[in-house]
Amino acid sequence: MHKLAADILDAHGGLDRWKRHDRLTAHLVQGGVLWPLKGQAGVLDDTSVTVSLREIHASHAPFGTIAARSDYRPDRVALLDAAGGAIEALDQPRASFAGHTLETPWTAPQLAYFAGCAMWTYFNMPFLLAWDGVETDELDVWEEDGQRWRRLRVQLPPTIVSHSSVQTLYITDEGLIARHDYDVEIAGGTPGAHYLTDYVEVDGIRLPTRRRIYPRQPDGQRVPEPLVVSIDIDHYVFG
After folding, report:
1. How far, CA to CA in Å, does 142 sit from each of 146, 171, 213?
2. How confident is the model over 142-201, as pLDDT tens digits?
3. How many CA atoms within 13 Å lie on the side-chain side of 194?
4. What CA–CA distances, in Å, run from 111 to 2, 88, 192, 219?
């Protein structure tokens, strides 16, 4: 593991402490232009999410008025009723996004896939750096708004399903993630600049409670408008 990657894990609470847990749940309040753009306004404005820390699996509950909860896995996503029965399901969901652009509307299962994939990645980062097959390299220092952040390029293996296989972490002097860049492949490769702030400590792990995602220009600069996604997080609970 690259030394910067190891330092990041330590700053967020350490891999040994993280491995004591199997899952992480939190309450989300979400906004931004993405949801109405995709024809899914309001569905996930106020919900809770649970992600596995051992495998690629996530669930939002409630899933608006559509379902009691969603069940996301890379090869299948389902919307479930209160008894756990499938209301609607989609096998091999990523293939259903072929030809999509940022403006292409989503079905409810496609929303469940995107939201599950996104939140699983966000909650497991930076500890994904310790997963098998992940490769990291340090990039040049980045300056933004009077801040100087070290940068770590992350190459994910095919076994880790995320927004894109190549992502970049921007790291504060404390070793915390300040920004997380990726390209949303299922939305035509749309580039995003994702900012993380207002960290809290839960069971010794440092976790952000405010996330803001903006478009990213080819030179890496953030586009200040529109705000694509906002996520405010509280009530983190490890299980």
Report:
1. 10, 9, 18
2. 999 999 999 999 999 999 999 999 999 999 999 999 999 999 999 999 999 999 999 999
3. 25
4. 35, 12, 18, 29
Q: What end-to-end distance do the CA atoms of the chain give, in Å?
A: 27
Tokens matching residue 151 = 């940068």
Interatomic CA distance for residues 68 and 139, integer angstroms = 43
pTM (predicted TM-score): 0.97
Apex 99 CA angle, 125 and 153, nearest 5: 25
- Whose tokens are 């927004």? That residue is 163
- Those residues with Cβ within 8 angstroms of residue 40's Cβ, 6 or more apart along the chain or in another chain: 105, 106, 108, 111
Q: Provide the pLDDT for residue 14.
A: 98
Helices and strands, counts by H and E, the chain: 4, 13
- What is the reported pLDDT for 1? 79
**Residue 126 to residues 46, 178, 179, Cα–Cα distance (Å):** 25, 11, 12
In CATH, the number for domain 3-233 is 2.50.20
Tell me if 21 sits within 8 A of 220, measured CB to CB. no
Under DSSP, the state recorded for 114 is H
Tell me which residue of 195, 201, 200, 154 sits closest to 178, measured CA to CA: 195
Query: SS3 for 103?
Result: coil
9 vs 124: CA distance, rounded Å: 11
CA distance 226 to 229: 9
- The string of pLDDT tens digits covering residues 128-143 is 999 999 999 999 999 9
